Amino acid sequence: MTRRSLTVSILIAGLCTAAGCSGGGRPVGRVSGIVTYGGKPVPTGTVVFMPTESGPPAYGNIDPDGRYTLSTYSPGDGAVLGKHAVMITALEQLTPAEAANPNRMPKMLIPAKYNDTKTSGLTADVRAGENTIEFDLTADAKRR
Fold this sequence. Notes:
Layout: H1 3-19, E1 28-37, E2 40-41, E3 45-51, E4 58-62, E5 67-69, E6 79-80, E7 82-89, H2 96-100, E8 122-126, E9 130-132, E10 135-136, H3 138-143
Parallel strand pairs: 1-9, 1-10
Antiparallel strand pairs: 1-2, 1-5, 1-6, 3-4, 3-7, 7-8
């Protein structure tokens, strides 16, 4: 490898790192936040960001404190840059005994409209770098 091609390779790698490229694909920005409903953290579930243009979706599990971190290409790398439609699912956690009962279905912890990007009304704009995007679903809790 010549000195010039080595320099170009290092510059490209540096630019990709600065832009947030992760494992080959479109650039990503790190995304994390908290999901709340009725003024309390949603204790379990999944957050999904679907790019409105093109690109792979990003997923993140919600922890007991309502926090999530998105992943697209590798764990915790974030979501592709740009606008996204967002869906959130949250079902109660069943004990093993409850799960063994075929008549016992988990209850939804948030309104069903959030289970689909077409009905959730939730959107997000992901930029390069760190993004803290919180979802407060309290408005729906007041309407119930």
